[in-house]
Amino acid sequence: MSENKTMSTNELEARLQKAENIRARDGVVWKDKFDRSATIAAAREMADGSAVKLAGRVTALRWLGKLMFGRIYDIDGEIQFSMSREELGEETYKFMKANVDLGDFIGITGELYHTTAGELTVKVSAYEILSKALRPLPEKFHGLTDMETRYRQRYLDIIANEDTRRTMKMRFKMLRLIRDYLNDNGFVEVETPIMQVVASGAAARPFVTHHNALDADFYLRIAPELFLKQTIAAGFDRVFELGKNFRNEGMDAMHLQEFTMLEWYAAYWDFRKNIDFSWKMIQKIIMELRGSLQIEYQGTKLDFGKYEEIDYTARMNELLGVDILEFKDADVLKSNLVAAGMFPAAELEPLKSVPAIVDYVFKRKVRDQIINPAIVYNYPAYMIPLARRNDADGRRIDIFQLIVCGAELIKAYSELVDPIIQRAAFEEQAKNKAAGDDEAFDLDEDFLRAMEHGMPPISGLGLGIDRFFSIIADAPTLRDVILFPIMK
Questions:
Q1: Global pTM exceeds 0.85
Q2: 238-251: string of b/e by CB count within 10 Å (b at 16+)?
């Protein structure tokens, strides 16, 4: 049984009776406001003798006859308070003892002092019961360990565990740092649709939802890319969006179906400019949050002071002994991989296109072995239908990925703005889809029309926020860095 399922009927009834006692005295149990003079964090910086009005959740109560000590909590910490029967008066003191439980919210008025043990404390001259908790905090809420409770009732995890509290606050600080960095460099934050007519922008299986008013099916976006490029076509030079994407795929420690993505697009940039710009941002964020570019992730030392460059095509050619730029037939490619003893036929059977097979081989044989930061570039054109073909060799695309600990953190490229090549690339994706590749792109006529009206040179980038932050926070799974993760 989880730690949150231990509330007895008697305990619920007792708390309900206390609520009625509070109603009888105050008229209202769950108050509408309390005029704080300071937060707990601010109060902790004040001098002894300062008058304060503080509020928070009660996390400790200790009664010592005529004197009691307790603690109240908010997201930035706790503070001790003390009450004496002489100062409050017999009835007020006894009412507190009889009707306030752990988990209740109270407001306290008093002045700061240090106890003989040296702890900052509020000497309470008056209190107000602000909200009655009908359910108790878990019995061992300091250090709550039940994983089911921690993920399903994250608010209890945050109250109970300093590490979780610190991680979540760090995540939100990271989001602010990202926004500040982009705003300071001329980017505009925009919003694009979550529900889309066409599933495109990434190789992924989409979620489908039905729009009742239109009596039509829509896809939850797998990426905002096509709309963000249309924003550039409208005349915005640099745009970004921080928001949710949805991909109806497998769930594991580094993959969730709903995840947070940062995408930005800059007119007149190429992918090399994006490498320089994004790497500086990555370093700035890590320095701000960890204080060093040399960090440890799950026992592995990582050095973000530098990155290795890996030529994708050259590395795969070396691995496979053939020129991957010339791959055309998925069945022949599978046969070659099986004959070389790299994979059993059954493992490759679900893969229905050359891009899917090549990507699978790369992930299993190359990417998984990359630990320290690496910029991987020079991919075959058939891998990404939205990327710009290299001017010197149209079989290649101007793209890079940042890979750390076997995981893709960034994918970015010089964008394809040639509508003729783009249409041909979409049509090739349609063939892959017809052959059974569920992750192939759909053809988007609205996007092609925008491209035919003209787009400037563009480079765009996508950064997986959850995955990136899990490395910064040294968290073993994405669930540990998401406020409310999806659970079965």
A1: yes
A2: bbbbbbebbbeeee
